[in-house]
Design goal:
The protein has 200 residues and is mainly α. The chain has a domain of 134 residues. Helices cover 85% and strands 0% of the residues. Helix 2 packs across helix 5, helix 6 packs antiparallel against helix 7 and helix 8 runs antiparallel to helix 9. The protein is elongated, with a radius of gyration of 39 Å.
């Protein structure tokens, strides 16, 4: 009688144990799935960060190209503002006058000396480019080429200055400003070659 009455209890306990085991197993699986989801989320974030990093790296060449251009623009602006403040002229006159004198220097200096100058003072290239876009200064350069000579007459520079509403006397006012600017950046030998090229 007692053995028979104990059977349902054993079965009940066995069922309870089974249910508990299933519950614990489900809880363990839930924790595992939760851990997997968190791991997957972190992996997705890492992939996204990797894509963003790759995009940023791909933009580096553009940034490295922009920085020298920005530096040149700042340099041109410094020289232009120096001419404007010291000579009381407009920025357009400062850029045009400096461009004309640099074309004169380019024509009179040796190729090697002028290349060294523009390497030491790269913003001079920007002023030359602006001069090339200006019709009077283009004519000035073409005149030098037409002469088949490395010399470009100061008279042509004066003519260009007049087209910019600058007096002939202002040519010699430009020279020391440009020379001082170059002297702080170029070697003494290159600076002396620039001075010789800009003499009347």
């Amino acid at each position: 009688m007692n053995e028979i009455s104990l059977c349902p209890k054993k079965r009940f306990l066995s069922v309870c144990a089974g249910v508990l085991a299933v519950f614990l197993s489900a809880a363990a699986h839930a924790d595992m799935f939760d851990a997997l989801n968190k791991g997957l989320s972190k992996a997705q974030q890492a992939v996204q960060q990797g894509k963003q990093l790759k995009q940023n790296v791909s933009q580096l060449p553009n940034l490295t190209q922009q920085l020298p251009q920005q530096a040149l623009a700042v340099g041109e602006n410094v020289l232009t503002q120096r001419l404007v403040s010291q000579l009381g002229i407009t920025p357009q006159q400062a850029q045009g006058g400096a461009g004309a004198l640099l074309q004169l220097a380019k024509a009179r200096m040796s190729q090697q000396a002028f290349q060294s100058l523009t390497q030491s003072v790269p913003e001079f290239n920007g002023l030359l480019a602006q001069a090339a876009a200006n019709p009077p200064l283009v004519n000035l350069a073409q005149a030098a080429i037409g002469q088949n000579s490395t010399l470009m007459g100061m008279a042509q520079v004066v003519s260009t200055f007049k087209s910019l509403n600058l007096s002939p006397d202002s040519v010699q006012q430009f020279v020391p400003v440009i020379v001082d600017y170059a002297k702080a950046r170029a070697s003494e030998q290159v600076t002396q070659a620039l001075i010789s090229a800009l003499l009347p």
